[in-house]
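Dear H.,

Thanks for agreeing to be a second pair of eyes. The structure we're designing against is below in token form, covering all 455 positions.
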């Protein structure tokens, strides 16, 4: 059953690729924006809780499914030794569809980042005569420019993916991830010295449950899954490139902890600026792009810091796009027997067409709104609050009922480490009972709210 499949070259390479997948626009762009919209503290606390109680066990499960079967999401869900028939494959199809949609608006937002690199080079954020907060507003009204930028991004992502796992993904992640971490810490220190820092920390870490709405609970869950790239099959594909000797629980723990920590850092970086420059915390998807440029204007060497930051942010966006892309490529290669390069080009074409919707959401389609929310935000939240929890539920039930326990145990337990022996029953119970129970409960709650709002 084990075909000759490419693998990650080194353990460090896998870490960088998995962290590169997890750490992207979700962490730096989406986390602050949804935290702002959902009122801060209580939302953040729930996000951390869901990351530990749901996302981490699911991450181990997705990687495990990939590692054992060496298949893409659909192949894993119809793996012969465990299942007969193709009943479970619809979960995989849903994951594939969600990947296309997310990749399309992710591509558009990555295009925004490219625009900010160019604006940084032109000195827009350090020039006293321009208002850096307006750069994003102007861009949003220009759908044509957004689609052009998105195309540049798609070409970059396609050329990496077409070259394959080791050549493309590992190499680019190894270089840019560490640089981005260093810049983030530098900015974080500066941000924490701003006058609004105290208010920001209070906003982020003082949970005021009276502000917590039921939709915020679901958003926290959806985001905890999204930020770890779960519910798409992307981590199943990455798991399938793991060498047999890699030990899953510890790898997953490292990836999840780093990503959660970085999300919190992103919050601590952005919100002091929000409260110092009096930016509206409920701004939505433009939040990151409205706040950071304000900080660059005040920093020593701000011109260079701005460029370096957006270049690195771009690479974070690129490595996540590549991960989304890779899940789809694995699917087309395994299931449709396509060659890697033609799979990559087909995906790029479909993504481009879908990206038109998001790129024009603030211009041509600006009148299509749900409440206050524009089309891009509606698509973003629709996929992340509905599709991802449903796909995750499917995967986790499959893991619980179809994958034999002794196989799970073999992957989880490392004879040399006593702690894995002790933790195994807890993880198994979490996967079999706690996670499905919480997911079903939260999905039903969300459905109830949706129905009540419609009545
Ligand atoms: N986790 C990535 C982020 O936080 C997004 C992503 C989702 C990447 C699914 C790959 C697959 O930006």
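And this is the sequence the design step returned. I haven't edited it by hand at all.
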């Amino acid at each position: 059953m084990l075909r000759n499949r490419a693998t990650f070259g080194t353990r460090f390479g896998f870490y960088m690729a998995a962290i590169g997948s997890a750490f992207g626009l979700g962490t730096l762009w989406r986390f602050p924006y949804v935290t702002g919209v959902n009122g801060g503290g209580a939302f953040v606390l729930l996000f951390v809780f869901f990351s530990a109680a749901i996302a981490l066990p699911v991450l181990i499960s997705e990687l495990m499914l990939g590692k054992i079967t060496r298949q893409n999401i659909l192949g894993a869900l119809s793996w012969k030794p465990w299942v007969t028939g193709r009943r479970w494959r619809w979960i995989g199809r849903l994951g594939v569809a969600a990947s296309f949609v997310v990749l399309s608006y992710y591509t558009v937002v990555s295009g925004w980042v490219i625009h900010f690199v160019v604006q940084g080079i032109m000195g827009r954020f350090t020039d006293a005569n321009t208002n850096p907060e307006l750069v994003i507003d102007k861009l949003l009204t220009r759908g044509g420019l957004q689609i052009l930028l998105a195309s540049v991004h798609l070409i970059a992502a396609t050329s990496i993916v077409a070259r394959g796992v080791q050549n493309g993904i590992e190499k680019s992640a190894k270089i840019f991830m560490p640089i981005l971490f260093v810049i983030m810490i530098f900015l974080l220190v500066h941000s924490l010295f701003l006058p609004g820092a105290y208010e920001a920390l209070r906003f982020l870490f003082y949970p005021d449950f009276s502000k917590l709405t039921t939709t915020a609970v679901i958003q926290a869950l959806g985001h905890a899954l999204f930020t770890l790239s779960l519910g798409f099959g992307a981590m199943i594909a990455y798991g399938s490139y793991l060498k047999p000797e890699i030990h899953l629980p510890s790898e997953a723990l490292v990836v999840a902890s780093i990503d959660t920590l970085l999300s919190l850092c992103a919050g601590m970086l952005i919100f002091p600026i929000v409260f110092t420059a009096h930016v509206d915390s409920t701004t939505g998807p433009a939040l990151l792009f409205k706040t950071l440029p304000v900080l660059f204007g005040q920093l020593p060497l701000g011109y260079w810091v701005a460029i370096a930051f957006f270049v690195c942010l771009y690479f974070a966006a690129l490595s996540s796009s590549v991960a989304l892309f890779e899940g789809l490529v694995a699917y087309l290669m395994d299931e449709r027997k396509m060659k890697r390069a033609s799979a990559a080009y087909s995906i790029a074409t479909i993504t481009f067409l879908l990206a038109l919707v998001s790129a024009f959401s603030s211009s041509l389609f600006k009148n299509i709104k749900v409440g206050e929310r524009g089309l891009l935000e509606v698509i973003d939240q629709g996929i992340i609050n509905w599709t991802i929890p449903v796909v995750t539920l499917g995967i986790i039930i499959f893991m619980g009922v179809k994958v034999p326990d002794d196989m799970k145990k073999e992957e989880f337990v490392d004879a040399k480490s006593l702690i894995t022996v002790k933790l195994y029953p807890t993880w198994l119970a979490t996967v079999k009972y706690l996670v499905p129970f919480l997911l079903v409960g939260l999905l039903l709650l969300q459905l109830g709210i949706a129905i009540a709002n419609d009545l």
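Two observations from my side: Residues 11-454 form a domain with the Hydantoin permease fold (CATH 1.10.4160). The chain has 18 helices and no strands.

Warmly,
E.
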